[in-house]
Structures are given as C-alpha cells and as structure tokens.
Design goal:
The structure holds two protein chains of two kinds.
Chain A (H helix, E strand, L loop, with lengths): L3 H41 L5 H4 L6 H14 L4 H11 L5 H4 L19 E4 L2 H19 L2 H4 L10 H16 L5 H17 L5 H44 L5 H21 L12 H9 L4 H27 L5 H10 L5 H11 L6 H10 L87 H8 L4
Helix pairs in contact in A: 1-3, 1-4, 1-6, 8-9, 8-10, 9-10, 10-11, 10-13, 10-14, 10-15, 10-16, 11-12, 13-14
Chain B lengths: L10 H21 L4 H12 L3 E5 L6 H12 L3 E5 L6 H5 E7 L5 E7 L6 E5 L6 H13 L1 E4 L2 E4 L5 E6 L12 H4 L2 E6 L5 H10 L14 H11 L6 H12 L10 H6 E3 L3 H18 L6 H12 L4 E2 L1 H5 L4 H11 L11 E4 L4
Parallel strand pairs in B: 1-8, 1-9, 2-5, 5-8
Antiparallel strand pairs in B: 3-4, 6-7, 10-11
Helix pairs in contact in B: 1-2, 1-3, 1-8, 2-11, 9-11, 11-12, 12-14
Chain lengths: 468, 349
C-alpha cells in the first residue's frame, strides 16, 4: 500500500479544484446576470458608455477568487477524506483507522490506494454560465438606437416654464397674486418641469395650460378692475379740476363745497383700495373733501395724486400686456378711460347751477364717458353739450298686435228670444281663459269661482285680513 | 503520528480467529445447504453475543440450523416448544419442596431449560405474554431471578428463537421490548431448485450429517476476545449513529419513506447492535477494523424488526426491509455531503 497521506493530499487537491470550479462558474454566471442587468440600466440611462461598462467583465476574476476562498474554507477534513478513500478503495476501515490507531503489519495486506475519481455532471451549471455570459454580451453589444428605445424621453418645456415663472413673478410683484399662492404655483411649476416626460406629454401640457389659464384669468380680472378704477379716477380728477376752477364767489363756494362732497362720495364708493390692484389716496385729503373744506393747494395735490394713481394702474397693465397676460386692447381701454376731458365745461356748469346739481355723479359719468359730435378734430375733442331732454314727439313705435279677447266671440252672438225671468245658464257658457277673470263665465255676471282646498283655507283668510 | 487508541490487531493475531470462523462457516454450509449468507449472519449474532429471531415457514430448516450450531460450537443445547399453556416456571425453573436426608423439607430450585448455552425457543409467539416476559431478563441480563435470588446463566448464553409468519391464530405477537432484545431477525427464504435437488439426492430422509469438526470452548472464548479488539473507526461509528437517527421520522437525514411510513424509529440499542454485529462481520472478513460495508451488511437484519410502521405502509405494501434499504441507499456513509452534481467513483483498476 502506498502512503495514504500522498493519496489523501492528491484527493483533497482535486476535490478542492472541482468544488472551486463548480462554485466559481455558478457565481460568475450570477455575476454575468447582474452585470448584464446593470449594463442594460446604464445604457438606457446613458450613465456610462459600453467601453466603460466592459470593464465590469473583470469582476469575474474576484468572483472566481472568492469562490476559491469559499471552497478552501469548507474543504473536508482529514477524517472525511480518509473515509472517502477507505470506502472507494474497499479498505474495510484500515485507512480510517490509520488516523486513530497504529496499523502495523496491515500495509502489505492492502492494495495500492487510488485517488477516487471525481465526476462532475456540470451540464446545467455550464449551460447557466453560457446563457448568462451570452446575456451579458448581448446587453453590451446591443446597438445604441435600440437601447435608446428604453429611455424615458424628457419633454422640453423649459421655455414655457420660464414664461410662466416670469408671469407669476410679475403678478406677485404687482401684488395681484399673494406671496404664498405665488410660492405654491412656482413649486408646482418646478415639479412639472422635473416630471415632464415625452411618454405622456398630454398630462404635462394640460397642467401647464391650466397654470397659464389661471394666470391669464387673474390678469384679465385685474385689468378690468384697473379700467374701472381708472375711469373713476378720471371722473374724480375732472371733478377736482373743475372745482378748482370755480369762481371765488359765494355761489362758487357753495358749488365747490357741494362738488367736494360729491367728490368724496365718488372716491369712497369707488373702493379704490379694494380688489386686485389697490389704489391708496391720502386719507387727510379725503376727510377734507368730505367736509367740503379742501383748499386750492389740497385740490391740486389731490389732482396730482389721482393722476399718479392712474399712471400706476396704466404701467401695471402695460407690464401685464407685455407679458401677454392681457389683450393689448384692454391697455387701450385703460388709456382711453384715463383721458380726462376738459374740466372747463363742467366748471361752467357747476358755477351756473351752484348747489342745485342733483345727480352730479351721474352727470359726471356721462361727461367723462362720451365726447359726442363729429368734427374735423380727432374724435373725442368736441365738447358734449348737455341741454333739455329730447321730445318723444314724432317718434315711431313698433306696433304690437295684442291677443284677441276671449269674449270676442260674444260679438257674433244671436238673440234667440226674450225671457221674463233671469236667463237660464246653459252648459255652453263662454268662459274667460286668462287674466283676472280667468275661469269666470260670460253672461252670468258671476265672479271667478275657485275651489279652495281645506289646507289652503287659513292662507286665504290671512290674505283678506291684511291691513294693506 | 500519535494515536489515541491502542494498536490494531496484527495480522498474526487476527488470522487464527479468522480461520476458526471460516471453519465454522464451512461446517454449517456443508451440513445445511443453500444459505451461506444466513449462516454468516447467525455466526455474527453468536460472536456478538446477541439473540437471533428466525422467521420462516415450517420446514425451511430453522430448528436444524440451531441444532447444528449447537453441535458445531459444542455447546449445551436445549429446546422449548412454546405453547399457549406454557408457564414461566416451565422455562425458568421452579422451587420444589423436597425432603432432605435429615428428614427436613425445604424448597429446592429446579433449573428450567433456560439454563443452557443455546436455547432454541421454537415458535416463541405461541406462548402467552406472561411466559414471553419471563424471557426478558434472561435475554438482557443472562440471569434468572426467582424468589429474590438471582442465578446467572451459563456463559455463553444465546436465544435462537423461531416464529412462523403464518398460522397466526392463537399466537401472541412479541412485544416491542422483547423484539428489541433480539440482535437480528433473520428471514428464511425458500431455497433454490438446485439446493432442493441436492438435499433430495444427498440427504436420506433429510437427515443431517454430523459435523466433522467442532469448536472448543476455549476457541470460542478466543473468538470473543478478538471480537472485542476489532476497531470501530470514528467515521463508521458516526455513520451508524446517522443511520439509526435517520430511521426516525422528522430526522434531518430521514428519507421520504421513513417520514411517510415509520411511526417509531430504532432505539440506541439498535445502534449498539449494529456496531457489535459489524465487528463480527469484519472478523469473519479477516479485518481488524470495521468498514462501511460491514455496517451495510448487518444493518438490515438489525433494523428490520425495530422499526414500527404505520397503517399507511400496510396499504402501500411497504416493509421495514424496503425502508431500511432506501435509507442505506440514500445516506452517504462518508458524510462528505458533496453537491448532487459531484459524484465520487472508485479509481479505475
């Protein structure tokens, strides 16, 4: 018998290599699968180029080394190796006993020990490894145009988002949009910009349209308010200018006091500080106007303030118009509303009528709103004359045919005889179909007869007990 | 290399014992035809100082085998035919009132047939449980206790019992405790046509020839001494332990058959029995150490009467032998537990 130690060492070495090869192939196959998946992900996300990714194949080397170390750690001990050699050499326990007891004299009794043959049925492992390697190679070799199919295409909405951001900022600057709401909108806009994908653009565009529409609506509302406020400011400016031109007489003073009170009433009812574009006037001037005690200097100051407020509103609308938030025609309307008519006519009217100018605000509204007349001058420069009310004489009205009376049929009635007693009511009496006499029979001299249900009785009684 | 155990038997020490066993087997094979493997197992049972339960149909030579063994080993041999009315006293012996020379009367112990070297308990399952239980102490302790006095049985003491697997009416199946005390349960199969022809041709009226050689008592003791020096290596004892543990359903290495059909697995006594029987097998093979093949040779007869199968096994016609063979086939003796796709084969010659 040859030395068991030599056989055991050889067997141990072969077993280790077989196990290490088997484990290494399995682990490398898994590595290839993982690497292939990572390659796919990297190529789709354009994280790395194929040339860079190919270096990952070198990962098989440490994996193989790790498998070798793993199998080295779990290699069988000498006792187990002796048991295997004993069994496969039919040594009947002599090889096993060699470790625990001296077996003198038995060496010659046994045949030479042979290293057991290790058979590895590695078809499945090899197939798995080959498939994993092929998969990894395919993921690397796949053309870029196919890899790009898997990418999630970004949607280019940068310009739109920038425009919307500018609009929101402008609305915020003009205090049309509150700071908190503006911040929320900006956050929503940023989120949209991040999540916008080409695979589902409709959702993104819909959200952007919604934001745009909200901005436009808000701006439009602000523009309409600005136009209305500008008109009021113009009226106030005209009245203030006309008041300052009143003669320094008692009647003039009386008319001025009345005009100042009307001016205060106008400014108060206009609610200039409310709404989206607030206008603030010095409260001292308003109080003085209410009392009718504005000095000529204060009147000039008031006119100046009103003009400045109109200018602010106009510049705000101009800014909104530049950002395409409002229609340019609205800017035109605002400018038109801000054109102050000649206050001399109004001053003459006030001086002439003094304190008897009831409905001054209505008059002022009409005075500022329209400048009728056709002339060679540019439109609007001709002063509007306020005279007597026009006559309705000669005016033509459209004739309207009234529905025929339901009793018209009586005209065709025929006398069939005279009776001494009251006429006998027949069943074919003519009955009014509409009006207050609806339901009343003709010829009977009776009023409307209506059946009142018991539950309506109290209501009817209450009706007739009314004082008026 | 330092060794933790005494040196193995040398070839010179082992060879005489091996020669003796070979001669015993030759005698047996010459006298009883056609069952060399069975003779080998019976001899292993005797060398292991174990009791053997022989099971087979009538006329297959159970009693003849036991008688022949007794003649060859030159041991005292007695036979008890178990019947339902057999009492423990008929087996163990009884105290009889006798008058002494001095005229006094005293109880004198009259030994039963159990006081012998080889006891043939014929058709043991026909005796009542009370009588079967009387055998428990004798089989395990090799002694008899009556009226507080314990008497040792002659050394060696073997029980070779037989039972008939048919004609079960009026029988009492052996309790598990008693079955566990039998080292082997050996099944007598029908002999081949050639053997039958040989028996008819060479044996007039089936009479057995007398042995030409007998084993002396001292030689038997030598065999027992050599048996005790047969070395059981650590991997083999581990294999025996795993094998016995694997007979229990729910064990880590239990086979599907064990899980499905076995109610109770083998006891630690079975593991001891396998180890002892494997030593005997190694001695007969002429080796000073026990190998895996020795264990695999003796495991079926040791385990086949120690597994308790459930009813499902009856429906599926699964026997204990099938279960044990499946376990032996599945269990890797070396405990190397290589992956399934790695297999070891003996080196080509």
């Amino acid at each position: 018998m040859n030395s068991p130690e030599t056989t055991l060492r050889a067997f141990s070495r072969r077993l280790l290599w077989a196990c290490a090869l088997r484990t290494a192939l399995r682990w490398m196959a898994w590595w290839c699968v993982l690497w292939g998946v990572a390659t796919m992900a990297a190529r789709i996300s354009m994280f790395a180029t194929p040339a860079v990714i190919a270096w990952g194949l070198l990962g098989c080397v440490p994996v193989a080394l790790a498998a070798l170390a793993f199998e080295w750690r779990r290699r069988p001990g000498e006792t187990a190796l002796r048991a295997v050699c004993d069994r496969h050499n039919h040594a009947g326990g002599l090889v096993m006993a060699g470790r625990e007891a001296a077996a003198a004299g038995w060496d010659r009794q046994l045949p030479a020990l042979a290293v057991p043959v290790i058979r590895w049925q590695g078809r499945r492992t090899l197939s798995f490894f080959a498939a994993a390697l092929l998969f990894a190679a395919l993921t690397l070799a796949i053309p870029d145009r196919y890899a790009a199919l898997g990418r999630q295409r970004a949607l280019d909405i940068g310009q739109t988002v920038a425009e919307l951001e500018t609009q929101i900022q402008a609305l915020q600057d003009e205090k049309i949009l509150k700071d908190q709401k503006a911040a929320e909108l900006k956050q929503e806009l940023a989120k949209l910009a991040d999540t916008a994908t080409g695979s589902d653009p409709a959702k993104t565009w819909e959200a952007l349209d919604h934001l745009k529409s909200a901005n436009t609506d808000l701006a439009k509302q602000a523009a309409e308010e600005a136009i209305a406020k500008t008109a009021k400011l113009t009226q106030a400016e005209t009245l203030a200018a006309a008041t300052s031109k009143l003669p320094d007489t008692a009647a003039g003073h009386e008319a001025a006091t009345k005009a100042m009170q009307e001016l205060a009433s106008l400014l108060q009812s206009a609610k200039l500080d409310a709404g989206l574009l607030g206008v603030e006037l010095p409260p001292g001037l308003l109080e003085a106007a209410k009392a009718g005690g504005l000095t000529p200097e204060q009147l000039k100051e008031l006119v100046k303030q009103l003009q400045a407020s109109k200018g602010d509103l106009s510049s705000s609308l101009k800014k909104l118009s530049e950002l395409k938030l409002i229609d340019p025609s609205q800017l035109g309307k605002c400018d038109k509303a801000g054109q102050c008519p000649n206050p001399d006519g109004l001053a003459a009217f006030l001086a002439e009528n003094g304190s008897k100018t009831d409905g001054l605000l209505l008059l002022l509204e009409q005075y500022c709103a329209g400048k009728g007349g056709v002339s060679e001058d540019p439109p609007g420069n001709t002063p509007m004359t306020i005279g007597d009310p026009s006559s309705e004489e000669g005016a033509k009205f459209k004739p309207q045919v009234l529905p025929p009376s339901s009793l018209a049929s009586l005209a065709n009635a025929q006398r069939i005889g005279l009776s001494k007693s009251a006429p006998e009511v027949t069943g074919t009496r003519e009955t009014a179909q509409s009006g207050a006499l609806a339901g009343a029979s003709a010829g009977g001299g009776e009023a409307q007869v209506q059946v009142i249900l018991p539950r309506h009785k109290a209501a009817v009684q209450r009706f007739f007990k009314r004082e008026n | 290399m330092s060794h933790s155990h005494p040196p193995l038997l040398t070839p010179d020490e082992l060879r005489p014992a091996n020669v003796l066993t070979t001669r015993v087997l030759e005698q047996l094979d010459t006298i009883l035809l056609g069952r060399p493997e069975l003779h080998r197992l019976v001899l292993i049972g005797i060398l292991s100082r174990g009791h053997v339960l022989l099971e087979g149909l009538p006329g297959l030579g159970k009693t003849a085998l036991v008688k022949t063994i007794g003649h060859i080993l030159k041991l005292d041999f007695k036979r008890i035919q178990f019947t339902p009315d057999l009492m423990p006293g008929d087996v163990l012996g009884a105290h009889i009132l006798q008058e002494t020379a001095a005229g006094k009367r005293e109880l004198v112990f009259q030994p039963g047939p159990v006081f012998t070297n080889i006891l043939l308990a014929d058709e043991i399952n026909r005796a009542s449980p009370k009588t079967q239980s009387a055998m428990l102490e004798t089989m395990q302790e090799a002694c008899v206790t009556l009226l507080g006095t314990t008497r040792k049985l002659p050394d060696p003491f073997f029980v070779l019992a037989s039972q008939n697997p048919i004609e079960l009416e009026g029988t009492y199946p052996l309790p598990e405790a008693q079955l566990d005390r039998f080292l082997f349960r050996l099944l007598f199969e029908q002999v081949s046509v050639d053997t039958l022809d040989q028996i008819i041709s060479e044996r007039r009226r089936g009479e057995l020839p007398a042995p030409t050689w007998q084993l002396e008592h001292a030689q038997l003791q030598t065999l027992f001494a050599v048996m005790s020096r047969i070395f059981l290596p650590k991997p083999v004892s581990r294999y025996i332990a795993r094998l016995v543990a694997g007979t229990h359903p729910g064990a880590a290495e239990a086979t599907d058959d064990v899980t499905r059909y076995v109610s109770y697995g083998a006891s630690p006594r079975a593991a001891i029995a396998i180890a002892e029987a494997a030593r005997g097998h190694a001695l007969i093979a002429g080796r000073p150490t026990v190998g895996f093949e020795d264990v695999q040779a003796v495991a079926p007869p040791v385990l086949n009467h120690r597994l308790i199968l459930n009813y499902q096994s009856r429906f599926d016609r699964v026997t204990t032998t099938t279960v044990v063979q499946g376990l032996l086939k599945k269990l890797d003796p070396t405990g190397l537990n290589l992956p399934g796709d790695l297999q070891l084969e003996p080196a080509a010659a």
